[in-house]
Design goal:
CATH topology of the largest domain: hpI Integrase, Chain A
Helix content: 55-70%
Strand content: under 5%
Number of strands: 3
CATH architecture of the largest domain: Orthogonal Bundle
Distance between the termini: 52 Å
Number of domains: 2
CATH superfamily of the largest domain: Intergrase catalytic core
Largest sheet: 3 strands, antiparallel
Shape: globular
CATH class of the largest domain: Mainly Alpha
Length: 296
């Protein structure tokens, strides 16, 4: 795709007459998109990029906590790029034509059912070090509602087994305490006793979760693993690490947890951010009402 960036830049200048600063921003956005697709999808043929690949990128931007205005501009940049590719007959279908700007969408976080969570967890059964580690990754994302960046940065001494609390460093280096249950405790203890001892090559890496080479896990690698597990579990939804965080919050709310408590565990500074999950629950209640009320 890189070979098409300069011609795209020229078309923005000559055909659309955009300001130089605007063109620079659009080109920068496209280069960032190309790097992401190459790194996570190993793909550089624009004709083989589909709508879900682009949604993956936008979700990744959201997880990276980019501003809505930034994500919106990047979507516009991608749409302009694909419009150019279609005009130049480099591609023969513009997959972005049916994609709305993120600014126009009121996104309700997608989440998995409890049955889907169980299916996902079953994909990591086994005693190999990476299987034990992968099961713990899923367990912590779902049981503690962690952001993927928080998971990567967890230190080996973060879990406190006496209090069943894990110490998490979130946005703005703010620390919060999140409880974990017996299942998570068992998975953490098992990982520390077995898998981590084999993965930690130097004994000096402070992070809890390690790669096969004994290094700190990256967000991209965890993203790739979640995609792989979803396929193996037969889950058709387009899920991300953040989906497990959404599921954590939605299931707590569904089972009666107070919204303020959920806010504290998620590390949201503003309750309005947590309130998006009430829309998920309201949708479920509406379905129940429609199905069972005689005057629905």
């Amino acid at each position: 795709m890189l070979q098409h960036v300069q011609p795209f830049k020229a078309s923005l200048l000559l055909e659309q007459g955009l300001a130089e600063a605007t063109i620079t921003a659009y080109v920068s956005d496209i280069l960032d998109f190309i790097r992401y697709i190459d790194r996570t999808h190993n793909q550089d043929n624009p004709a083989k990029i589909n709508r879900f690949d682009i949604l993956d990128y936008l979700e990744f931007m959201q997880q990276a906590e980019k501003a809505v205005s930034t994500i919106t501009r990047r979507m516009i940049s991608i749409k302009l790029f694909f419009r150019f590719l279609l005009k130049e007959r480099i591609i023969f279908e513009n997959v972005t034509e049916v994609m709305d700007s993120p600014r126009l969408l009121k996104l309700i976080p997608d989440h998995l059912s409890e049955e889907e969570i169980d299916s996902l967890l079953l994909t990591c059964e086994g005693r190999e070090p990476l299987q034990v580690r992968n099961r713990l990754i899923l367990e912590l994302l779902y049981s503690c509602g962690l952001r993927v960046s928080e998971l990567c940065n967890l230190k080996v001494d973060a879990p406190n087994f006496d209090t069943a609390i894990v110490r998490v460093t979130g946005k703005g280096s703010k620390e919060r305490l999140v409880p974990f249950g017996k299942d998570a405790e068992q998975k953490i203890r098992d990982y520390l006793r077995t898998a981590r001892l084999k993965l930690d090559k130097t004994g000096k890496v402070p992070e809890l979760l390690l790669t096969q080479n004994g290094k700190k896990m990256t967000r991209t690698r965890i993203w790739q693993l979640i995609k792989k597990f979803a396929v193996e579990a037969g889950i058709s939804k387009n899920i991300f690490p953040h989906t497990l965080r959404h599921s954590f919050a939605s299931h707590l709310l569904k089972n009666g947890a107070d919204l303020r408590v959920i806010q504290e565990m998620l590390g949201h500074s503003d309750i309005s951010t947590t309130q998006v999950y009430t829309h998920v629950e309201s949708s479920r209640l509406a379905e129940v009402h429609k199905s069972f009320h005689p005057r629905a």
